[in-house]
Design brief:
Distance between the termini: 113 Å
Helix content: over 70%
Strand content: under 5%
Largest sheet: none
Number of helices: 2
Structural class: mainly alpha
Order of helices and strands: HH
Length: about 150
């Protein structure tokens, strides 16, 4: 009877030890799973954080580029306006010179008629007027080219 009790106790102890070992293995496995899940979540959060930082940097760069484009557009508008004013001024000067030369030519023509050499004076006046017209046209082309260069 004593042996049977001892055998029974040893068997119970062995079963209890196996159950404890199995429970311990299960606890280790569960802990390992939790650690892996925590690492996955940490990696996921780090990735999201990096993605958010990259998006923020891209947004800031986009804002800076938009501001620079607006500034450049404003500068181009100012340059265009200045070029137009320069062109208008050059045209005004050219017209004034042409009017002055025409007036001089008219005066020469009147003198030539009074002196009896109307034909010579008329040819002289025509040549002066043509020259003035060409110079006015050249000045206008220069102003247009300046405006185009300023616009570009």
């Amino acid at each position: 009877v004593g042996n049977a009790l001892t055998d029974k106790a040893e068997e119970d102890a062995r079963i209890a030890a196996e159950k404890a070992r199995a429970a311990m293995q299960a606890a280790i496995g569960a802990t390992r799973d939790k650690i892996m899940r925590v690492n996955e979540v940490s990696a996921l959060l780090a990735g999201m954080s990096a993605e958010a930082a990259a998006k923020k940097a891209a947004d800031e760069e986009l804002e800076r580029a938009a501001a620079a484009a607006a500034k450049a557009k404003k500068g181009a508008a100012k340059a265009k306006k200045a070029a137009k004013q320069g062109q208008d001024k050059m045209e005004g000067v050219a017209k004034s010179r042409a009017a002055s030369k025409k007036k001089d030519a008219d005066a020469k023509n009147m003198r030539a008629q009074k002196e009896g050499a109307a034909k010579v004076a008329l040819n002289d006046a025509k040549a002066s007027a043509a020259s003035a017209k060409k110079k006015a046209k050249d000045a206008q082309e220069d102003a247009v080219n300046t405006a185009a260069a300023a616009k570009a």
